[in-house]
């Protein structure tokens, strides 16, 4: 007997899954860029304070017991509001291509994994979670190629003015000076460590998110059918 799509939990659930082929890529990337930029604006002052604190001892400006609040006040007093947003323009604008790269690689990898695991004998939530976990790790490894040099540039701009730091006239001046002094290796300083600690975290986050979403959809669809 053929089941109706409106009353089938499996078919109803499949309608909630948005694969890469069915995705409105223009809206997806534009909305993602807007949300990411807004998020970055909110947390950027914290990133500036954290970066300043991490170089406090070597720069000789703050002691090892200096608090984040005192660093924040110091930046405001000496550099104004512009100081706590130092490097934000480079981070926000430079992150846009990186976000497209990260989200595209995530969705493509997830779609490939879901297709390759379709015939495996495992619970659907496990398959969805595993596919998203692998996609999250792959996406992070790919996007690190772009984001690590961007982080190097932004961090150099954040610590501008501290003793022992070179004054740079904007993003391209940072690139020119790093390439001159350290070469390509300087632009990828910390790449290995970033990939090692971010990739498992990305896999865990996306895997848990997708599996939880799948289970919630299944529960809500089953509850709806019981009520009907």
TrEMBL record:
Q: Indicate where this protein is primarily found.
A: membrane
Q: Which UniProt keywords apply?
A: Membrane, Transmembrane, Transport
Task: Tell me any Pfam family this protein matches.
Answer: Mito_carr
Record's superkingdom?
A: Eukaryota
* Keyword set includes DNA damage: no
The record describes its membrane topology as:
Multi-pass membrane protein
Annotated GO CC locations: membrane
Residue ranges of Solcar repeats? 26-112, 127-215
- SUPFAM superfamilies linked: Mitochondrial carrier
Task: List locations, semicolon-separated.
Answer: Membrane
InterPro entries registered for this protein in UniProt = MCP_dom_sf, MCP_transmembrane
Similarity comment: family membership: Belongs to the mitochondrial carrier (TC 2.A.29) family.
PANTHER family, per this entry? MITOCHONDRIAL SUBSTRATE CARRIER FAMILY PROTEIN J, OS01G0329400 PROTEIN
Query: Can you say what this protein is called?
Result: Solute carrier family 25 member 44
Give the source species.
Cuscuta campestris
